[in-house]
């Protein structure tokens, strides 16, 4: 029976060595990077194709042109926010991939250390004739000495087997994590590219209608471009009273947003020279020490909910659910916003805005 116990311990040690050897010989342990086929996104492709080939209705009156332009501006802003979300997804996925790669390197180092430790242990056992003196153990005058050696051998074998198995499990887990992270990056990039294609098609249509609008009378053009502009008196009142009822953080956020007046709207921009809607509010509150995502729907899910009747300067107001547009309330019924393509950061009456859904307080 004693001989059988030694034999089992020997087999466990050899099994551990074989397992470590197999791990080290694998492409993963050798540092081979996993390769992924480029994922496809049938849904995104179909959407892009539909957007690009939509047939526009004939527009024959100034009212029809301005109405359609307003609709296109809203569609454009929704797509801009989708692009912002896609860009955030890409950034998050890339961070995950970097983290997985770092963990992968650590796991490879652990495997190498385990392999060296096991090889050294086996070599030392052979050099000390642990297995070669088996016969002398049977002849040992001390039965307890023999049992102690057997117990030590069993513990060593079990430990080495555990080291090998834990290392193998860690390697497999990290390898899978890296694959998932890389796939997430590829999918996010695909989504981002699809949204950019959609927006390019939409911009082409907007230019078409803007050209049509340019042929209309000055009053017709003014009706469209000036529909969300505040009057000089409204602007003066709001600019002189935004500190009333506001916290210090509110004042900083509003002052920062107002400093951007007149700068052009550009999709996915967050300053310093151009802004989109969520980029403007993000920069405003960033100056006050509050970190917001560059995404209207993301900002909508943060802060403290506020009723429309209780708005104070600095509160963010959202349009659509989930929000596709966000602006900053500055008091006296006015907001500061980056409206849409072709426009600039400006002050507008909140009452002139449609599709209001909620408001949030951050100060």
The helix/strand order is: HHHHHHHHHHEEEEEE
Poorly predicted regions are 2-10, 16-21, 23-53, 129-133
State the helical fraction.
55-70%
Number of domains: 2
Radius of gyration: 34 Å
Tell the overall outline: elongated
Strand content: 5-15%
The first-to-last residue Cα distance is 78 Å
Please identify the structural class as seen in this structure.
alpha+beta
**CATH fold-level name of the largest domain:** Helix Hairpins
Largest sheet: 6 strands, antiparallel
Q: What is the correct CATH architecture of the largest domain?
A: Orthogonal Bundle
CATH class of the largest domain: Mainly Alpha
| Mean pLDDT across all amino acids | 76
Structure description:
The chain is built from ten helices and six strands, in the order ααααααααααββββββ. 33% of the residues are buried. A hairpin with a 5-residue loop joins strand 2 and strand 3. The longest helix has 72 residues, at 143-214. The chain is of the alpha+beta class and 363 residues long. The protein has two domains: 2-32 and 60-214, Helix Hairpins, CATH 1.10.287; 228-361, endopeptidase fold (from Nostoc punctiforme), CATH 3.90.1720. The model is unreliable at 2-10, 16-21, 23-53 and 129-133 (pLDDT under 50). A six-stranded antiparallel sheet has the order 1-6-2-3-4-5. The protein is elongated and about 105 Å long. Helix 3 packs antiparallel against helix 5 (143-214).
């Amino acid at each position: 029976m004693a001989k059988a116990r030694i034999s089992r311990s020997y087999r466990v040690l050899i099994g551990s060595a074989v397992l470590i050897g197999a791990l080290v010989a694998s492409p993963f342990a050798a540092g081979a990077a996993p390769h992924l086929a480029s994922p496809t996104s049938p849904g995104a492709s179909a959407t892009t194709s539909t957007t690009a080939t939509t047939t526009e209705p004939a527009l024959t009156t100034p009212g029809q042109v301005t109405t359609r332009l307003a609709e296109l501006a809203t569609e454009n802003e929704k797509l801009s926010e989708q692009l912002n979300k896609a860009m955030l997804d890409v950034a998050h996925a890339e961070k995950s991939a970097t983290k997985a790669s770092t963990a992968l390197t650590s796991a490879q180092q652990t495997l190498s250390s385990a392999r060296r430790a096991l090889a050294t242990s086996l070599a030392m056992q052979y050099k000390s004739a642990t297995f070669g003196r088996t016969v002398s153990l049977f002849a040992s005058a001390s039965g307890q000495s023999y049992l102690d050696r057997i117990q030590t051998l069993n513990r060593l074998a079990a430990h080495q087997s555990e080291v090998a198995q834990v290392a193998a499990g860690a390697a497999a887990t990290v390898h899978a994590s890296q694959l998932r992270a890389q796939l997430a990056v590829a999918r996010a990039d695909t989504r981002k590219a699809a949204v950019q294609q959609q927006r390019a098609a939409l911009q082409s249509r907007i230019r078409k209608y803007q050209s049509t609008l340019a042929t209309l009378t000055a009053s017709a053009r003014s009706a469209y471009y000036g529909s969300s502009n505040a009057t000089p008196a409204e602007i003066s009142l709001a600019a002189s009273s935004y500190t009333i009822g506001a916290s210090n953080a509110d004042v900083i956020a509003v002052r920062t947003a107002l400093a951007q007046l007149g700068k052009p709207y550009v999709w996915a921009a967050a300053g310093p020279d151009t802004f989109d809607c969520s980029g403007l509010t993000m920069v405003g509150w960033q100056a006050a020490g509050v970190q917001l995502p560059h995404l209207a729907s993301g900002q909508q899910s943060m802060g403290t909910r506020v009723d429309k009747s209780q708005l104070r300067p600095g509160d963010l107001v959202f349009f659509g659910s989930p929000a596709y547009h966000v602006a900053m309330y500055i008091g006296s019924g006015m907001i500061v916003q980056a409206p849409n393509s072709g426009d600039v950061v400006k002050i507008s009456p909140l009452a002139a805005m449609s599709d209001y859904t909620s408001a949030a307080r951050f100060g």
